Amino acid sequence: MTAAVAGLPMTTATAAEGGLLRLAHLSPDTPAVDVYVDSVADPAAGQVFPGVGYGTVSEYQSVPPGTYAISMRGAGADPASPPVLATTVEVGADSARTVAGVGPFADVGLEVLEDDLTPPPAGSARLRVVAAAAGAQTLDVAVPGGPAVATDLAFADTTGYVDVPAGATSVTVTPEDGEATDLPVQVAAGSVYSVLVLDRPGGGLTVQTALDAASPGVVPSGGVEAGAGGTADSSALPLAATAAGVVLAGGAGLFLLTTRTTAAGAARAPGRHAAGRRR
């Protein structure tokens, strides 16, 4: 699943000054959306990503430090119409942020995730888990030979990063009152990943890995070279398909949302900020 980029190109940051920004649609029953990214400091610099569906995570864009407005409208909606969701995100020099639409459609919101691109120890990979499957309201997640990644991880929540043995392995996912399922993943030594737990079309769960940072010396596709921080330079923000979820067509029933931080968001794991929840 890919999406074309339309609109004016966003200013590309230099290696010395850039932060990193990417987008994700992780709300299972929310229809495809058009995503708008605009610099508050330079309104003429912005991009539009049409038809972004469930399970899609973009590549990182190197952007100048500052405040960016993120807004989503139903796919094909008039750009002048009120957004479905809207929030702002601060991107600092040498920082990385993922703005994700999460939760069920009835309470869909935007979350700003703080991405840690620090290289893991030699022979290890680093990963976190994003619970994006409506079919599992809570999850236990573990990796064979590694630590427990999450216990009672709620739908739409995200874990912190943990170091795990590199190579071909599996993620053991156990829904509340359900059976454990081993889902295969491949994680390279020296690399950093976000592991997305998604609803499988037709029922059940699946996982997809989104590359946050590749091992030093490896040219990444989608992520940045580990240790590069905000130095990766990119002139576009193509959307990379990371899942094959079923996307519900149409944008009927979408309403203007106001941005707020929820009390639940304040209690979530560090590195995650709630915004734009449906009132």
TrEMBL record:
A Pfam family cross-referenced in the UniProt record is DUF4397
Q: Which domain of life is it from?
A: Bacteria
Which residues are in the DUF4397 domain? Answer: 20-142
Q: Report what the protein is called.
A: DUF4397 domain-containing protein
Organism this protein belongs to:
Geodermatophilus normandii
